Structure formats: C-alpha cells, structure tokens
Amino acid sequence: MALRKIVLRGDEILTKTCKPIRKVNERIRILAEDMIDTMIEADGVGLAAPQVGVIKRIFVCRPLLEDQEKIFVMINPEILEKEGEQVSNEGCLSVPGYIGTVMRPERVKLRATDLEGEEHEYEFEGFAATCICHEYDHLDGILYPDKATAFMTNEEYEEILRKLQEEREQEASEDEIEEKE
Ligand SMILES: [Zn+2]
Q1: What does the H/E/C string look like for the chain?
Q2: Distance between Cα 45 and ligand 1 center (Å)
Q3: pLDDT tens digit string along 59-108?
Q4: How far is the centre of ligand 1, averaged over its atoms, from the C-alpha of 6 (Å)?
Q5: Residue 173 — very low, low, confident or very high, per pLDDT cuts 50/70/90?
Q6: Which one of 7, 57, 109, 179 has the fewest beta carbons within 10 angstroms of its own beta carbon?
Q7: Distance, CA 52 to ligand 1 centroid (Å)?
Q8: What is the value of pTM for the model shown?
Q9: Which member of 125, 135, 159, 179 is catalytic?
Q10: Is 118 exposed, middle or buried (0-12, 13-18, 19+ CB in 10 A)?
Q11: Domain extent at residue 72
C-alpha cells in the first residue's frame, strides 16, 4: 500500500487534458492500487489520476452509496449517454473545505477498460452518476468550481442546512398548531 500526495486546486496539473492509456501494464496497476488507497485514506468517493499528479485517463471511485466496498477502476472512460438533470452538492479532495452546487445528468452510460484490460459498459444514476461525471471532468482538466452555480465553505453549507432544518421544524410546529385550532 502506498499513499500518494493529493494535488490541490491552483496547481496547473489539474487543468491539463489527460492522455489515453495505451496499455494496462504493471505500472498502471500500481497507480490504480495507490489511487484506491489514497482515496480511502482521504475518505473520498472518487479520485482521478491528475489529482495525484499523473496526466493519464484513469480514475477510481466507489460511487454506490449502498455499497461503498464496491470500487471501480475506469481506464480511458468514455461517456456514451447522459440523461436527465439533477442538482448536486459536491466536494473534491483537491478543493478541501468547500462545497459547490453543480447541475449534473441524472443518469450516465459509460464505457471503460478495467485492470484486466477488458472493456465494460456501465450505467449509473443519482449520486453515482454525479460522482462519475465529476471524476470524468478531472480527466479533461475541469474542476467542479468551474461549473458550480454556488460555491461555499463547508461551514457556510452547514449553516444553510441548519437554517433549512429550522424552517422545516418551524413549519411542522405551525401545522400542528393549525390542526389543534
Ligand atoms: Zn474532484
């Protein structure tokens, strides 16, 4: 197990278009393993090669909320179809301390090569689709703040959630009063 250093926003590596991987060899397998270790250690759901300073088209992710043990390695991924729309609140290991609101497709179909060199097609929806699109963007040098309609610190985001919760509780208690009257 080897952890790699995560590159932070502001480093121009994160703005590069990554190069396709010609052959899935031992070096790529070691890179993928290190990326998985680094993602888990950092408590992330995805990590793309440029985030560890490698300008190659590969990302790792664990996009299934119901099964965080299921890890995908996506080599030379290609998004085949996008469908629908969703608003997502995203963070990024390269942009620590911030959350941004981004419009993403609700469903995506993706083709990618795995560590055995075999091509597969995948379909993801909801949170998983967001995760895939976020990681895929990294391979084209795009960070979510480039697309975000809102960008705030974790504290500001928590404050918004707290206010929403208060409003909801307020409404619930007003409903209760009305029912009693
Ligand atoms: Zn990211």
Answers
A1: CCCCCCCCCCCHHHHCCCECCCCCCHHHHHHHHHHHHHHHHCCCCEEEHHHHCCCECEEEECCCCCCCCCCEEEEEEEEEEEECCEEEEECCCCCCCEEEEEEECCEEEEEEECCCCCEEEEEEECHHHHHHHHHHHHHCCCCHHHCCCEEEEHHHHHHHHHHHHHHHHHHHHHHHHHHHC
A2: 9
A3: 999 999 899 899 999 999 999 999 999 999 999 999 999 999 999 999 99
A4: 10
A5: confident
A6: 179
A7: 11
A8: 0.91
A9: 135
A10: exposed
A11: 12-148
Ligand 1 center–CA 142 separation, angstroms = 9
Ligand 1 ion local residues (Cβ < 5 A): 92
Check residue 181 and give its pLDDT: 67
Task: State the total domains in the chain.
Answer: 1
Instruction: CATH number of the domain at 65, please.
Output: 3.90.45.10
Residues 6+ apart with CB under 8 A from 54: 31
Rounded to 5 degrees, what are φ and ψ at 59? -140, 155
The residue type of 105 is P
User: Mean pLDDT score of the chain, rounded to an integer?
Assistant: 95
Q: Among this protein's residues, is 135 annotated catalytic?
A: yes
Q: Identify the residue whose tokens are 């610190």.
A: 153
Q: Is residue 131 part of a domain?
A: yes
Burial class (CB in 10 A: 0-12, 13-18, 19+), 33: middle
